[in-house]
Amino acid sequence: MAEAVKMKDQSIRGGGGDNSGSGAIEKLGEHPRRWRQFLHEVRVEMDKVSWPSWADVRSTTVVVIVTVAFFGLFFLGTDSLAGWLIGKLIDFGKSH
Hints:
Layout: H1 2-13, H2 22-48, H3 54-95
């Protein structure tokens, strides 16, 4: 059983009993075919993709921009307040 698996694995890899360079040349010759197959599969899968409508893209983009602006302002205010409070604590500590 193990011998059959080993032989099958060698035949898949292009290896075999002979140690000539023909296996490497065969593998090199497979690359254009494999690339064509890969690009064909990509094209087939891209046809299956459900793309959002332009209206959906615009609305979600607006939501993202508004959300980022809101949180940017929120964290600006929070950071400024925290910096001000820490400055007051340091000044208080220096005076006492």
